[in-house]
Each structure stands twice: as C-alpha cells, then as structure tokens.
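Job type: complex structure
Entries:
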Amino acid sequence: MRHARPLPASDPALGDLLVEGLEVHAPDGRTILAVDRLQVSAGATLGVQGPSGAGKSTLLHAICGLVPVAAGAVRWGGTDLAALPEAARDAFRRRALGLIFQDVLLLEELSPLDNAAVSAAWAPRAERGAIRARAAELLVRFGVPQSGSVGPLSGGERQRVAAARALARDPAAILADEPTASLDRETADRLVADLLAAARARGRTVIAVSHDPAMMAAMDRVIQVVDGRVRQ
Amino acid sequence: MTPDDLWRALSDPAQDLALTLALLLPAVVLAALALRGQAPWPLARALLLRFRWTNLLFVGLMALSVGLGGALLSQERALRQAAARAADPFDVIVAAPGDEVRVLLATVYLQPAAALPLLGADALRAIQADPRVSLAAPVAFGDSHDGAPVVGTTTAFLDRLAGPPTEGRPWRSASEALAGAHAAVTLGETIVPAHGHGDAAEPEAHTGAGLTVVGRLPETGGPWDRAILVPIETLWALHGLASGHAPQEGERLGPPFDPDYFPGAPAFVLSGERLADAYAIRARHDREGAMAFFPGATLARLHAVLGDVREAMSLMAVLTQALAAAGVLAGLVALARLFARRFALLRAMGAPRRFVLGVVWLYAACLLGAGCLAGLALGWASAGLVSAAVSARMDMAIRASLGWPEIQLAACAFSAASVLALAPALAAYRRAPVEDLRAG
C-alpha cells in the first residue's frame, strides 16, 4: 500500500501573534478598526466578542492579511503580515493559517472529502497526498462521511467539513468567524469541542470571533471589540 | 536542409497535422501557463456540473456556429470536387465561337440553354483529319423526357464517360436509347422525347418517334446520370435533319460522319491518347470558325472567380464563431460571478489569484472545446444531409465530408476562444475576496 508523504510542518516557528498600532480604514478613509496592542501566545485560544458591526470580522481579516492595513503591524512570529504585498500574504495564509467562516460555502458538486481537501488543488504536487490523507482523517474524527454529496449533510456536518477543510493543511493557527452561528446548541458544542481538541492536540493557536457564550467559555481568553477598538 | 525543404518533405497529411497542431499551440501554451503546478480540474468540474444546463446551452451555441461553418465549407469544397469530377471525361470541347462557360454548362452539366450555334462540316473535316484525335464525339441536346435531358452522342463517348451498361445492352438502332444511372425510366420502356425543356417543352413535337430504353449506364456522379442518351443520328432525325452518313450507308450509327451529310452539332468532345495530344488538339481546333477549350481550365477560372465567395464564406464562418464565442464568454463572466463567494473563500484560504484564473479558464476552455468538438460532429452529420439535398438539386453526386480545413477551422476557433476565455478568468482573478466574503 502506498502511504502519502507527511505534510511538512506548517510553520513551527510561527510563534506568537503581536498586533501593534493597527489601523484599518474604510474606502472613504474612516478608521473602522484601531488596535493599540494585542498579543496571542502560540498555542493559545482567543475568543473575540462584541456587538454586530463593531469590527470583529475586520480584526480577523486584518490578522490573516485579507485586508490591507493603513498603519501598524501584524506580526506572526518574525513575519509582519501588514508589510507584505498581497501575493506574499496569500502565501502566508496558505502556509500558516486555516480559516472557518459562518457561511461554510462548500462546493456542492464535490464530496465531503474533496471539499475538505480542496487546498490540495493549489498545493505543490508532493503535498497533495498528505493533505488528502489528513482531510480524510479529520472527517473520520469529526464523524462525517467522506464520500457522496455534501447536499444531504446537516448544518453541523457541513460546518465540520469546513473545519476539516481549514485544518487539512495542519496550519499553525486557526481563525474562525462565527463558526457556530447557524448551528443548534448540541451541534455547536460538538463542533467547538472537535475544533479545540484538534487544535490543542497539535498545539495550534485558535482565534474565534463569536457571539456564542458557550464557545467563548471554552477559550483560554476573551477580548471585546467595541466601536472598532479592542478592550482586553 | 532549410525549413522550406523540411516542410515540402512532409506528406500532405503530415503537413495538415502539423498545421492543426500549430493552430492549437496558443491554447496549449495558455493551458500550460494557466494551469502549471495546480490541479484546478475538481473545481472546474464543479462549475461544469453546477451550471450544467446553461453549460449545455453554451456548448450547443458554439457547436452550432462551428458546425454551420464546417458544413458550409465542406459543402462548397465537395461541390467544386463534384463539378471537377463531372468535367473529367471531357478532355477538350470544340464548339462554335462564343461563350465557353455557356457551352461548358450545356455540354458537361446539361443545363438547358438557348440554342447554341452549330459546328458545321468544315469543323468536322478538320476534326476527322486530325491524327491526334482518338475520340471525337458530337453532342447534341435540346430535347427532354419528363424533365430529364435527352442527349444525342456516340457509344464510344458513353464508354469513356461511364463504361458499358450495367443493365441491358448498348443501342443497336436509331430507335433505341440508354438510360443514365438515375434516369427515371425503366428498361423496355418506350419514350417519346419532347422538344425543348421545362415549361417551354413541346411534348407533341416528336409524336410517333418512340424510343425503346435498352440499357442503363453505370453511375458517373454527374448530371449525365439523369439523362436519356440516344444516338446523335436519332436526334438529327427527330428534327428532320440529315443523318450524318451517306444514304448508301443505310442506318449507320456513330463515326466516321460524312461531312457532306453532316447537319451540325453544338459541340464535339475530343480526346487524344496522351496529355500532349490534348494540348495539340486544343491548339489546332481553336481557330477561325471554332473554339476549343479545356473544360477543366474553364472550371478552374470559374472557381477562381468564386474563390472570393469562398473567402467570404470562410470569413462569415469565423465571424459567426467569434460571435458565438463572445456570447458564451459574456455568459461565463456572469456565471463566474455566481461562484464569486466560493472563489473568495478559496482566496481567503490562500489560493493564489492564478489558481482562480486557472479554474475559470479551464471551465471556459472545456465548454468551448466541447463546443468545437460537438460542432465538428454536427458538421459531419449535417454535411451528409445537406449533400443529399444539394445532390438532388444539382444532379451531381456531392459527397461532402469534414476534412482538414474544417478541423483546422475548429482548431483555430478553439485557440482564439481559449485566448478570449482569459476575459472571464481575469474578471474572476481581479475580484477582491473580502468584498465577496462580506457580500454574503
């Protein structure tokens, strides 16, 4: 039997996240997020709470390099993501971060395994087998079938496929935006338990934006974002 | 060895294959650039399945444009080939001075024409005195039976044109006739030719002159297949003219003809033993009081004039394909937008912009490629149907089939479309993922 090569360590030296003097502006120049200082140790779990429109998602987008920042630094270990051009930020996310969104946006025409292993499509050929193997392993762990269509899956199962998709490359940090928002209590609890167990087992950092008090209670630390400002 | 020498050293199929591959090269290069190092097929397949009915419509549109172009061009080529094939047995035609094209149409294609001036005894003398002429057949027309032309000529020429009868036997008397392969008469049937053709035909003009069909000729693929062939002496007799032979010769049929009793013929078909003879014959009989020409050369001149039409048809085919491709690509831009949030998610996960470009390009290229292939199949299928219809109308066996020009046209269309497919791919490439993620 042929074994997939193990994934290369995603970025063991990623280190802590340190955000300093961060400002994100709207297209009209208005400041929509300002963070004086935020530090998250490698392997810690951080919850981000706050009212709708306060800037939680923008914070998440800024620390994963999806939005350009107007000022400040977003340092993951020695890498200042804010100073990198778009292609380099893409490459960094590809290498080091896993993302989960409230809207799972699965590809309905693909199987759960193909969805979970979708990042293999743009990975170097040598890594594709390992990504698929890990995606399959995660689906087994999360109790989701690998084959068939994703259409008949429940909301919780779909969100677990999305979690497996985020974890399939074994990223050093997982960023989640309202991952339990559309799930019932029981399903949400199971997803949080699965996600945190998988992350903690590998010493991975988790930063989750959520209105879900149960999820926040499971995190090491929780911060508030109000009117674009972080309150620790 | 120069590139020119190398090219000439290749066989025709090898040249065609090389040209086709060269035409596909832009698409191949683009594919290599867009897809290198990535595996976008599962995502492109998802797009193909997601919008399957719209995709089918796009493939159909592209197929229709490629198929239509292919069918038109193959038909035009088949028509030219059939026309050339039909003219092949007519080495040199000698007629009274006038319009070569008119004589060609009347003699080779049996197209009804106003009465042609006749070649007289002087021309006959010259022809019969020419040692290079191995076959000299007077041809006369102007009568018809149930819409089919009745043509007077000699058995020697019919032997050359079609070969011996496949049914029955050659005529042995002036009251017998042979049927062309597809002439609507039966063996043993007695016919009475009408004078003239179509609406102007006079069915009663030759009443009493019944001709019995005694044989059927093999198929030639030309208009003579629908004709009823009779000894030229019979046609002369029907019109109250001399028989072409001295009275003491009795009911003689065929050459040599006696110039003193020769009533004239609108055309002679001449052949020589060798190619050089044909040139000598044409030169010798193209003189005062007669014109001699190669039907093939006249046809080639006609085709050269019609070459512009072919160019126009090719251009129209390319334009139709370009319009279809543009329509499909505009539709793809809209469809790709429906997938924008999923692409945004992939980009958020770190997928390079080039990956999104590759997925959309591959999706578009699959549709356009499938359209071109389906178009070739459609062109192949429709060529047969159109050929049957045109054959019936033109009295010629037209066998259109897709050839290298149509394959190359489709290859060219695919390459051009694959370049244009960069448009929806670039539209997806340029989208900002955050805006699309927030749009949900």
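Summary: The first helix of chain B runs from residue 3 to 9. Chain B has a mean pLDDT of 87.
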